[in-house]
Design brief:
Blueprint (H helix, E strand, L loop, with lengths): L6 E6 L3 H12 L4 E8 L3 E5 L2 E7 L10 E4 L8 H11 L3 E4 L15 H4 L9 E3 L3 H16 L2 E10 L6 H15 L34 H14 L5 E8 L6 E9 L5 H9 L4 E3 L11 H4 L5 E8 L6 E8 L3 H17 L4
Parallel strand pairs: 1-2, 1-5, 2-4, 5-6, 6-7, 8-9, 11-12
Antiparallel strand pairs: 3-4, 8-10, 10-13, 12-13
Helix pairs in contact: 1-9, 4-6, 4-7, 4-9
This protein binds NADP nicotinamide-adenine-dinucleotide phosphate (NAP).
């Protein structure tokens, strides 16, 4: 339960995720006595139908605040690296959406339905996993509880909202241009995304995982950390598709002991935050439009893998901006309240 009737909350970043964070905080009635929004530049901006003053991010803006939800850019000069540790020194708990702290040993990487206990050891910074990792662990954790998963194969179909506001607008602009027979401008991606797809998300990392792009490496390492199982063997192929919002994933797992389709479906049905949509004979399965704007991770097509002993295949879809980002961050904050950690 909340120790305070209202917390002083900062959202850093006013793009796709920052916008959704403000919306989710309001929708879920997170107890706030103050909400401040920071970005690179100051201006007025409408969030969820309400106009807010956006202020330029500076260290003194964190003075006296309880909680800072970061949704700025990543990297050395990004918002979280520049201001996250400073915010912690000023007494804020930081929940970061980017990749900068996720694999640090002392930073909990949390999907509240799966590993909330990791929050107990937080030292000021808590990381939200990568969007494609969040929905995968939501879908496989209930199966892992029945029998340890020793191997995971995943292929993703990732929406352009995952790249941020500019890419979202580019898919809309390219689609419009294509329909009107006008020239197509390519800025955000290596190739045209409208009426196309490509198997590259982020950059290569030849030293650690030759041939893999970093989104794929994140899925591997982050899943192992969240599931607390470094021996879990995972391979991923991440693909950007011309979908505005919500990521889809085709996943096959191999468990140590056999798990029946019925057992897996029952476990998924009982998993908080998961909605089972699995009636293939009636063409009922998850798809991006079903998940968009909603909180659940939708799972369907649960079936025995005919090629692997103890293998199960499934398809899952979630809103990458909500469960893959803003919602998961706010759920972490709610868990901190519930566990008396804030
Ligand atoms: N999109 C997703 O599905 C998703 C999912 C999970 C995690 N994430 C992560 O969440 C973060 C935000 O993603 P997004 O999609 O919301 O990006 P976005 O739409 O491009 O918005 C980025 C926001 O960050 C602000 N910003 C950038 N650098 C900053 C700095 N140094 N200090 C303060 N503010 C800064 C920008 O400010 P201005 O508006 O003033 O330029 C902008 O408002 C990224 O780290 C991303 O990797 C994204």
């Amino acid at each position: 339960m909340a120790k305070k009737s209202g917390y002083q909350v900062i959202v850093v970043g006013a793009g796709m995720i920052g916008n959704e964070m403000v919306k989710v905080l309001r929708q879920r009635k997170f107890p706030m006595s103050e909400l401040k929004i920071l970005a690179r530049s100051s201006r007025k901006q409408v969030f969820d139908g309400v106009e807010y003053e956006v202020r330029e991010t500076k260290a003194n803006e964190f003075d006296g605040f309880d909680l800072a939800l970061f949704a700025g850019t990543e990297g050395e000069k990004g918002a979280a690296v520049t201001f996250g540790p400073k915010a912690v020194k000023k007494g804020c708990i930081v929940i970061d959406n980017g990749q900068d702290f996720r694999m640090k040993r002392k930073v909990p990487l949390v999907v509240p339905e799966v590993n909330a206990d990791a929050l107990k050891n937080h030292q000021g910074i808590i990381s939200n996993p990568n969007c494609s990792t969040v929905q995968m662990v939501m879908a496989i954790a209930p199966i892992h509880k029945i029998s340890r998963i020793k191997r995971v194969w995943v292929a993703t179909y990732q929406a352009v909202s995952g790249t941020g506001t500019a890419a979202y607008k580019e898919l809309q602009a390219q689609t419009r241009a294509w329909c009107e027979g006008k020239p197509i401008e390519v800025k955000e991606y290596p190739v045209q995304i409208a009426f196309n797809l490509f198997p590259k998300i982020a950059d290569l990392d030849p030293d650690k995982f030759p041939g893999y792009y970093k989104e794929e490496i994140k899925m591997i390492l982050e899943t192992q950390k969240i599931m607390g199982d470094k021996r879990m063997k995972i391979t991923a192929t991440c693909v950007r598709v011309p979908i505005l919002n919500s990521h889809s994933e085709a996943i096959t797992v191999e468990t140590e002991a056999p798990v029946s389709v019925e057992q897996a479906r029952e476990a998924l049905k009982n998993m908080p935050g998961v909605v089972l949509m699995d009636e293939p004979e009636k063409a009922i399965w998850p798809h991006p439009l079903i998940a968009s704007g909603n909180d659940a991770t939708y799972v369907g097509r649960v079936r025995k893998d005919s090629a692997v002993k103890n293998g199960l295949s499934l398809f899952c879809v979630a809103d990458n901006i909500r469960k893959g980002g803003a919602l998961n961050a706010v759920q972490i904050a709610e868990k901190l309240m519930e566990m008396n950690l804030i």
